[in-house]
Amino acid sequence: MRTPPQRGRRQGRTTSRELILGSARKLFAEHGYAATSLREIARDAGVDPAMVHHWFGGKEELFNACVELPADPAQVLGHVGELPAELRGEALLRALLTLWDSPAQPALLALLRNVTGSKAQAALIRQVLFKRMLALAMAGLPGSAAELERRGVLVASQMIGLMVARYLLRAEPLASAGHDELAALIAPVLQHYLTGPLPGTGSAVPGTGHG
Amino acid sequence: MRTPPQRGRRQGRTTSRELILGSARKLFAEHGYAATSLREIARDAGVDPAMVHHWFGGKEELFNACVELPADPAQVLGHVGELPAELRGEALLRALLTLWDSPAQPALLALLRNVTGSKAQAALIRQVLFKRMLALAMAGLPGSAAELERRGVLVASQMIGLMVARYLLRAEPLASAGHDELAALIAPVLQHYLTGPLPGTGSAVPGTGHG
DNA sequence: GCAGTAATTCACCATCTGATGAATTAAAGC
DNA sequence: GCTTTAATTCATCAGATGGTGAATTACTGC
Question: Residue B57, CA: closest nucleotide via C1'?
Fold first, then answer.
């Protein structure tokens, strides 16, 4: 009845880092950053709390590692900016859905929960989201910078709303709808925001100038 | 150089309860529920932490008091359900904006931050939001229950996205746009979701039946 | 003006938090 | 096979957290 050796290195391949990352992504996404403790993460991962510090250095760094996207947004959205204007609404939506329904989802969820909560990072994330990702999607569209910014933020508002409703609130029937159905329902609105007529804008997709 | 008496009741009218509520709404809205401590709230209100317990009983109860809406949603949205279908998009949006740009804003902000974070309350809030408020706005519209639910959740997705972008992320130019401008930009989309043609639906606003 | 009650702060408590350093065990290098 | 290095747990820290009970002061009813 010897107590089995607990301290010290385990045999075989080491998995603690991945276990911690998995539990952390899950719990950060579920409860948010502040409401998730390192000890809770460690417990969920079946590991000593000190391991978190060993592998990541601290809570902040762990969170950063959690939201490190396994996919490059530029790669996911890159081709959208090369499509003809009238196809971008649907392409943008499908790119976003594909990204979300991929291994990146836990990271994105953790991110989304904490964009709307206000961590220090939030400002940076906003900037990346709005300036970089949207810039990619709207590259080459006609119109003044101000008009494109306005169109972009409208697109973003609908996409954020969809993500919140589908992945955070899990509101049916959005939560379990397939990509095709969502594309049919929402892509027309995105397309409208991208290239449709807007008040304060002379025409839809004007060829030259702004007035 | 006597230390002025600090303990005991203060002279004049008592304001602590309101001070605490104000600070709590502000801080809950700013940092979220979990990241806001009672002591921080008390410090901000210039009051002893024990006052929070005296007036509210605990953190949970304080939060509940914070999100107690100063306006009755039914009152704000009631008349929307009585308008002809083709006017409801704009009316709904304006009702929401009016509610937000009112003394209720801090409470709503605290609420929104913690709907997307996941407190225990969240499920209840979702239910109230989706089933009750949307039900009011969609009362009397034609179509099957399933279709109305789908239209409703689409409407909600756009409105949530707008609220998040405008009030949480403060993304320009949405954040500082006036009601008229927002109505012109977004009401058509809400109207489209409410009564426009949707895939899986025979026609727009069918008069009778569903197929 | 005296008694009761309400408002306020203080001094604590148990618990949890993120974090550190040492001890222990296994793997890797040679 | 011995040494070095990496992985793991333990014991522990200082500080913050939500919460409680008593002491102190002012207002209120009579």
Answer: D19
List the single residue in A32, A184, A186 with the smallest CB-CB distance to B117: A32
CA of B127 to C1' of C15 (A): 34
Instruction: Give the pair of three-digit tokens for residue B81.
Output: 């359900």
Q: Exposure of A192 by Cβ count < 10 A (0-12 exposed, 13-18 middle, 19+ buried)? A: buried
pLDDT digits 0-9 by tens, B74-130: 777 878 878 888 899 999 999 889 888 888 888 888 888 877 655 555 666 677 777
C1’ C14 / CA B8, Å: 27
Q: pLDDT tens digits, residue range A38-67?
A: 999 999 999 999 999 999 999 999 998 888
Residue A181, CA distances (Å) to A88, A93, A98, B115, B150 in order: 17, 11, 14, 26, 11
Q: Which residues of chain B have pLDDT under 70?
A: 1-5, 70-71, 116-125, 201-211
Set out the domains of chain A in order of their start, with CATH numbers: 16-66 (1.10.10.60), 73-195 (1.10.357)
Is B25 in contact with B110 (CB distance < 8 Å)? yes
Share of chain B above pLDDT 90, in %: 35
Q: Which residue is nearest to nucleotide D7 (CA to C1')?
A: A9
Give the HSE-up count for residue A134: Cα atoms under 13 Å, Cβ half-sphere. 25
Contact A66, A24 (CB under 8 A): yes
**Shortest CA distance from B130: residue in chain A:** A171
Contact B24, B59 (CB under 8 A): no
- Inspect the interface and report whether the beta carbons of A35 and B30 lie closer than 8 Å: no
Q: Which residue is nearest to nucleotide C9 (CA to C1')?
A: B7
Token pair recorded at residue B149 = 């639910």
Minimal C-alpha gap between B149 and chain A (Å): 8
